[in-house]
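Extended Data, panel c. Modelled sequence:
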Amino acid sequence: MVTTSAQWFGVTYKEDAPAVQKQLNDLIAQGAYSTNLWGA
């Protein structure tokens, strides 16, 4: 098991996508993730 203090979020319904996209964009802006998440 891997433990983390990070908040988990995911997309269960298509209506969830905008909120998850905002969370990812916020994490990118904070420097937690690269702007190129998929390596392409």
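The mean pLDDT is 89. This feature is highlighted in the accompanying rendering.
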